[in-house]
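User: Just a sanity check before I run the rest of the batch. Below are the structure tokens for the first item. I only need the designed sequence back.
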């Protein structure tokens, strides 16, 4: 009887704790506006458009995976990057930047190998080069875990965290990319991506440049 009573008390306590934790959780949309839990999960159903950022134990933020904008001091940014990396960079051209945020569960698991990653990048870059003679550079924030599936010598450290501060506010799982033009227009994509996302981003950048 005592054992049963103790078990019942533990279950009730656990349920109350979980309920309390759920009540403490705050939800925000991509514009940093607080939203209800119901609205948060409705938006989350559109997985391809949104990414979840766990800011802390009590805050979840829905981030639009694709972002478009324009930077005013783009020439200064590109010249700073050029002066601090080994990869060639022509600041008069569009630039595709692959960004590795550091090791996480997404980019450190799976069956991909260095060989398959190299093939993946090679195929993508052939597709891109048919559409635009742009720069392609690889930048990391933290190279821990990078060499497991990539040739770390092909990547450069983000100088003064300038790429992170300009385009990547949070740690987006797997990795991200941004395509930026010499006039400051850019299209970025957060989290895991495929060839289609990069090609579509390039199309949108070129459209924005035509409208400029």
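Assistant: Here's the designed sequence for the first item:
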């Amino acid at each position: 009887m005592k054992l049963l009573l103790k078990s019942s008390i533990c279950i009730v306590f656990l349920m109350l704790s979980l309920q309390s934790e759920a009540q403490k959780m705050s939800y925000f949309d991509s514009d940093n506006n607080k939203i209800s839990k119901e609205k948060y999960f409705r938006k989350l159903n559109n997985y391809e458009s949104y990414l979840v950022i766990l800011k802390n134990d009590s805050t979840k933020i829905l981030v639009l995976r694709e972002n478009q904008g324009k930077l005013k001091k783009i020439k200064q940014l590109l010249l700073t990057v050029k002066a601090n990396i080994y990869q060639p960079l022509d600041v008069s051209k569009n630039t595709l930047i692959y960004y590795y945020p550091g090791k996480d569960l997404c980019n450190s698991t799976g069956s991909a190998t260095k060989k398959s990653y190299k093939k993946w990048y090679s195929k993508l870059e052939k597709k891109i080069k048919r559409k635009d003679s742009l720069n392609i550079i690889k930048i990391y924030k933290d190279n821990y875990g990078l060499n497991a599936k990539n040739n770390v010598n092909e990547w450069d450290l983000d100088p003064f965290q300038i790429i992170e501060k300009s385009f990547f506010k949070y740690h987006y799982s797997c990795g991200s990319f941004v395509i930026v033009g010499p006039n400051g227009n850019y299209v970025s994509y957060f989290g895991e991506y495929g060839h289609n996302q990069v090609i579509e981003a390039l199309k949108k950048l070129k459209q924005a440049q035509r409208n400029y």
